[in-house]
Design goal:
Elements lengths: L1 H9 L3 E10 L3 E4 L2 E3 L6 E3 L10 E4 L8 E2 L1 H6 L12 H11 L3 E11 L7 H7 L1
Parallel strand pairs: 1-7
Antiparallel strand pairs: 1-2, 1-6, 3-4, 5-7
């Protein structure tokens, strides 16, 4: 947590930062996400290229673990309430981009999670 705080504090372009999210079997769950070139359909990132540095800039951060600057969070009115369970993290990334703020994953910091098993209905509805 202290490393994430230090990076966020020292990088004015960042609105938020997250860790590399792992699942219990040492598999990468999420490195944030990106949008395809033809639209805003989100793609979850799960691989680190060998040439990449510790800080990976992304379009959105997985909502399981995100550290944000409160002033930037308030300026976009936080997570949009019309999304419940799925896609609120993607929507927040879009809002940060609108105010020219970046998001990043620090691949040297690791957090572990497991899937909540929420109904697929929410993913389909919110997409």
């Amino acid at each position: 947590l202290s490393r994430l705080c230090n990076v966020l504090k020292n990088r004015p372009e960042l609105a938020g930062i997250g860790p590399k999210l792992m699942i219990e079997n040492d598999e990468i769950w999420s490195l944030g996400g990106s949008f395809n070139k033809k639209g805003l359909f989100p793609k979850n990132l799960r691989k680190i290229a060998k040439k990449e540095k510790d800080l990976k800039f992304v379009d959105w951060l997985d909502g399981a673990c995100v550290l944000v600057k409160i002033e930037d969070y308030k300026s976009v009115n936080g997570y949009p309430e019309e999304y419940f369970i799925y896609m609120e993290d993607v929507a927040l990334g879009i809002e940060f981009a609108r105010i020219n703020k970046c998001l990043a994953v620090d691949t040297t910091v690791v957090a572990t999670q497991r899937s909540s098993g929420a109904p697929r209905f929410y993913a389909i509805r919110n997409n």
